[in-house]
Amino acid sequence: MFTGIVEELGEVVAVEAQDATARLTVRGPTVTADAELGDSIAVNGVCLTVAARDAAAATFTADVMAETLDRTTLGALAVGDRVNLERAAALASRLGGHLVQGHVDGTGTILRRRTGPHWDVVRVSMPADLARYVVAKGSVTVDGVSLTVVQVGPDWFSVSLIPTTLEATTLGRKSDGELVNLEVDIIAKYVERLLAPGPMPTEPDRP
């Protein structure tokens, strides 16, 4: 579990394709300082498990399965790309953002960016099946960053990015047309399931 408060901007140092999977190595001095094998680290909002760690190089390596490559932007990462990093929250952590699982629901596209004197307002597209979980003044996670929704449309939402977010995360560098990972509020999905009159539909098994 995460909070959506990015701890540092990391850098991809290696991407190794392995059939339908990939092995990703990322440099991040803060998140690797106390990392152990099996720990969880969110990379652009995707929860990954530390499979190897090089303390001297301040890097960690994680295996990325086919499902993750299909549903997130991690499959497009290349050496040198910057990524948002956050360690899993401890029970004693302050919940500065909101409850984030690191389980990406889908991807969206940055539709429009309006730069102001103190913040940027960004409009992001979202898959139609996620729209019912996004509400104005609610929470949404974009590339691992916990944000408050400003406005909602049928297939888009907008957020305001303060200077700290612009400087400390990849969202300050994203341009129109770029893809981002989206995770909606888990509480909304649980409420929907509890109120559903019948069994929830399931997705077909993937090969």
How would you characterize this protein structure?
By secondary structure, the chain is mainly beta. The chain folds into 2 domains: 8-87, Elongation Factor Tu (Ef-tu), domain 3 (Beta Barrel); 106-194, Elongation Factor Tu (Ef-tu), domain 3 (Beta Barrel). It contains 4 helices and 12 strands; from the N terminus they run E-E-H-E-E-E-H-E-E-E-E-E-E-H-E-H. The strands form 2 sheets. Strands 1-2-5-4-3-6 form a 6-stranded antiparallel beta barrel. The protein is globular.
Topology:
Blueprint: E1 8-18, E2 21-27, H1 29-32, E3 40-43, E4 46-54, E5 59-64, H2 66-71, E6 82-87, E7 106-115, E8 120-125, E9 139-142, E10 145-152, E11 156-161, H3 163-168, E12 179-184, H4 186-195
Antiparallel strand pairs: 1-2, 1-6, 2-5, 3-4, 3-6, 4-5, 7-8, 7-12, 8-11, 9-10, 9-12, 10-11
How do the helices and strands follow one another from N- to C-terminus? EEHEEEHEEEEEEHEH
The largest sheet is: 6 strands, antiparallel, barrel
Give the termini distance in whole angstroms: 28 Å
Topology-level CATH name of the largest domain: Elongation Factor Tu (Ef-tu), domain 3
Number of helices: 4
Count of folded domains: 2
Spatial strand sequence of the major β-sheet? 1-2-5-4-3-6
In terms of structural class, how would the helical and strand content be classed? mainly beta
**Which range does the strand content fall in?**
35-45%
| Beta strands, count | 12
Rg computed from alpha carbons, rounded to a whole number of angstroms: 17 Å
